[in-house]
Amino acid sequence: MNLLWLQSGGCGGCTLSWLGYQHGPLFQVLADEGVELLWHPSVSEAGIDEARELITQCADGRRDVDVLCIEGSLLRGPQGTGAYHRFGGGSQSMAEWVRQIAGRARHVVAVGSCSAFGGITAAGINPTDACGLQYDGELDGGLLGPHFRDPSGLPVINIAGCPPHPDWITETFAMLARGQLGARDLDDYGRPRFYADQLVHHGCPRNEYYEFKASARKPSDQGCLMEHLGCKGTQAHADCNQRLWNGEGSCLRGGYACIRCTEPGFEEPGHPFEATPKVAGIPIGLPSDMPKAWFVALAALSKSATPARVRENATADHLKRSPSVKRGRK
Amino acid sequence: MTTRRVVGPFNRVEGDLEITLDIEAGRIAAAYVKSPLYRGFEQILQGKVPADALTLVPRICGICSVAQSAASALALGDAAGIVAPPNGRLAANLTLATENLADHLTHFYLFFMPDFARADYAGRAWHGATVERFRATVGTAPNEMLPARARFMQTMGLLAGKWPHTLALRPGGSTRPLQASEIFRLHRVLRDFRHFLEGVTFGSTLEEVAGLSSRSELSAWQQRAGGGDLRRFLVIADDLDLWHLGRATDRFISYGCYNDTEGRLFSAGLWDQQRLPLDTAAITEDISHAWYAAAGLPQHPAGGGTVPVAEKPGAYSWCKAPRLAGRVVETGALARQQVTGHPLARDMVQGQGGSVAARVIARLLELALVVPAMERWLTEFVPGEPWCIPAPLADETSGVGLVEAARGSLGHWLTVRRGRIHGYQIIAPTTWNFSPRDGEGEPGALEQALAGLPATADDPIPAAIHHVVRSFDPCMVCTVH
Predict the structure, then answer these.
(1) Could you give the CA distance from residue B435 to residue B447 in angstroms, rounded to a whole number?
(2) Looking at chain B, which residue has its C-alpha nearest residue A5?
(3) CATH number of the domain that B232 lies in?
């Protein structure tokens, strides 16, 4: 299975994240899994004329592309010209190159939330009219339109995340190469379910603080970040706290809020990223699938039941009080 | 007769790059460096609450993400009038150092060395071994380096949650307090990285490499047994005379980086035939050849703006042209070591000026210099002491954050009005190095470095051009942001 990777309105961070793959030498792993890099802007030998010729062949059909991977938002501006990114060496916009090759590729993969949904480049006034391949934020559409399907009937496969975990990218490729990624393996936003059917909350090391609503007040506190500091881990689809990043990290483990970067529209939460919006003291964003009345009732109950240990540790940057040790069998 | 040739896409740079060459009599008469991608972060940031910058600016760049984050944290800290406590300072040093060193490694093994495995060099004595070792994706070197790099990046998992795009660095310190056992695990990660560098990259101790004080000492070291990838590069550098390739202005700047209890590991300054203080008030951005609406004279970034325009006569890049007191400067690892006064950097520049060889060696030299500093910073943490202090911001304020990314000087200039971001201007390292011409018509650093190189109208682009371009370790996504 060959793979052509192009970058447009993004930061290159998806590629950099991917290069941190920890389960073997990445290039050898790809070869093992039958994935051939036709061209990747950061790692391939071929440049300039050689690269242009190859990409031109992919666009005009002289060369078959099994997987087209796009990293970065697609820039439609200014005024629909796509001129905010003309692919180096010519006058054609990158958006047009992507349209042409996507129409011929066996599969189209959006690597990262920019190419999936528009992402961070679409934040603020969205100066470049950035969008995703098949989504414009939460709206169906994007560059390729809502009805896009590859020859096997799949929509754009969205490896959402800012950036995506290196495993998400590698495993998606391996599953495609084995023919194991079908429509049922993608969720409503086209994300591979093997990671998107989890919530960031699952496996969060702050779970005891969450249970008792013992909340952090300021950066470096150990408590739960949901009540005051903007954490959306209970709503964000990803397995960040089970799979872990760079060996043993995650946003929560790093001490800062989940900003739900795997979700469309995360770049414009409608409030400061690290402040939880509330009505009458109650956070507006509820945990996924949680009825509001129960959430409020349970929060009130658990707050009144918070052990002093948990309460004190929540607003400190190190353990003030250790769990008590019980002697004898109980 | 002048032939104009448009060359792109350059790959193995971070982002997209195109260069237009005017070729006369078999030489490059003039080069025009074009950054073809605009994203508009400075516009995106306007009107946001200032703290949102910490989430947004790392996403300017996937390879300098922490540097962007650190500059933003410093700008916000400057605006709040606070300085992080020692634990926070050390965490920031270690996080930035990890990114900078990982970038040096990525540059050398993935971006730069594969060019010597190209067929252009078939027939050179070293070519066969270089193909086996450094060929893109299939060589032994990239497949040995990537796992070592991934292991090294576990530092980020422990210190910063993840990389790229951490939110751990704050104006008041770090959100990630470390306990003794985590500090021990970081120590193990650094030991493994040291073993990789000493065994694979240098074939020598880090201290020996860091202590090289002249080109003649470097040559003597090269002759000693030990192997390693730096020695492999030096053989190529001598054979192709990369010492006389890619000279730009030989004026270098560094903002200085890695705060110690007193002073910095690498100090700030300007090198212009001698070491001078750096006057950041003399920095301006010129947009005469960039696709932005003119706002009069070149502006200092604290008062600058960003208004893109689709068409503009004479413009050829989305990159603005930063100048220091109106002059072109170069930034990067060589500049940093030249300014701070490392004797090997000074000797290389004294001899042949800024060159492809000197830039690459300066990066590897930093690997040898910074890992021991990281080992020392780890011992200076005091668990239980504060990691982060509050940084309340006035509704009307301003701040500056200056850091050194792997590829050079990065500055953020922030102004806050009515509690919101009024202005946020960013000058990235490659904005300096790959700038277009300014209002006086003076070409940017890379444009100068390319002028005079052999090239023809029809033949494939000579490998030397690739070497010169990549010797700056360009990051195009930062350049325009």
Answers:
(1) 8
(2) B11
(3) 1.10.645.10
Q: Do B49 and A41 touch (CB under 8 A)?
A: no
Helix (H, G, I), strand (E, B) or coil at B481: coil
Residue B444, pLDDT > 70, answer yes
Q: Walk me through the domains of chain A, giving residue ranges and CATH numbers.
A: 2-195 (3.40.50.700), 198-320 (4.10.480.10)
Backbone angles phi, psi at B65, to 5 degrees: -55, -45
Distance of CA B364 to the CA centre of its chain: 13
Report which residue type is found at A179: G
Query: How close B211 gets to chain A, by Cα (Å)?
Result: 31
How, if at all, do strands A2-7 and A67-71 pair?
parallel
Which run of H or of E encompasses B196? helix B180-196
Looking at residue B48, its amino acid is: K
Spatial distance between the Cα atoms of B30 and B19, rounded to a whole number of angstroms: 10
Mean pLDDT of the region A15-26: 98
Q: Tell me what pLDDT residue B383 has.
A: 92
Whether the pLDDT of residue A47 is over 90: the answer is: no
SS3 B155: helix
Mean pLDDT of B255-282: 97
B167 CA to centre of own chain? 21
d(CA A112, CA A162): 6
Q: pLDDT at position B311, please?
A: 87
Are the beta carbons of B44 and A42 separated by less than 8 Å? no
SS3 call for A235: coil
Asked if B334 and B349 touch (Cβ cutoff 8 Å), the reply is yes
User: Could you say which of A17, A128, A254 has the minimum Cβ distance to residue B168?
Assistant: A254
pLDDT at B201: 98
Distance CA A112, CA A263 (A): 10
Digit-coded pLDDT (tens) for B279-329: 999 999 999 999 999 766 788 999 888 999 988 999 999 999 999 999 999
Cα separation, B102 vs B100, whole angstroms = 6
In chain A, what residues touch B16 (CB-CB under 8 Å)? 7, 41, 85, 87-88, 94
**In Å, how far are A186, B64, B80 from A71, measured between CA atoms?**
19, 17, 36
User: What does the pLDDT average to over A288-317?
Assistant: 92
Averaged over B346-367, what is the pLDDT? 98
Q: Which two tokens stand for residue B297?
A: 């004279």
Q: What is the ipTM of this complex?
A: 0.97
CA distances from A231 to A9, B196, B292 (A): 27, 38, 38
What domain range includes position B173?
2-480
Question: 3-class DSSP state for residue B480?
Answer: helix
pLDDT in tens, A138-163: 999 999 999 999 999 999 999 999 99
**Does residue A330 have a pLDDT over 80?**
no
Per CB-CB distance under 8 Å, the chain A contacts of B310 are 78-79, 81, 83
Cα separation, B174 vs B168, whole angstroms: 5
Query: How far apart, in Å, are the Cα atoms of B137 and each of A240, B117, B286?
Result: 28, 11, 39
Q: Range with the lowest mean pLDDT among A213-217, A290-294, B35-39?
A: A290-294
| pLDDT score recorded for residue A86 | 95
Structurally, chain B folds into a number of domains equal to 1
Q: How far apart are alpha carbons A174 and B172 in whole angstroms?
A: 43
**Using only C-alpha atoms, what is the Rg of chain B?**
22
Residue B121 has what pLDDT?
Answer: 97
Q: CB–CB of B457/B479 below 8 Å?
A: no
Kindly state the DSSP code that residue B438 receives in the 8-state scheme.
-
Q: How far is CA B410 from CA A74, A291, B165, B174, B427, in A?
A: 27, 47, 17, 20, 6
Look at residues B72, B79, B82, B54 and name the one whose alpha carbon lies nearest to residue B390. Answer: B82
Helix (H, G, I), strand (E, B) or coil at B165: coil
Q: Is B475 exposed, middle or buried (0-12, 13-18, 19+ CB in 10 A)?
A: buried
Contacts of B174 in chain A (CB under 8 A): 220, 255
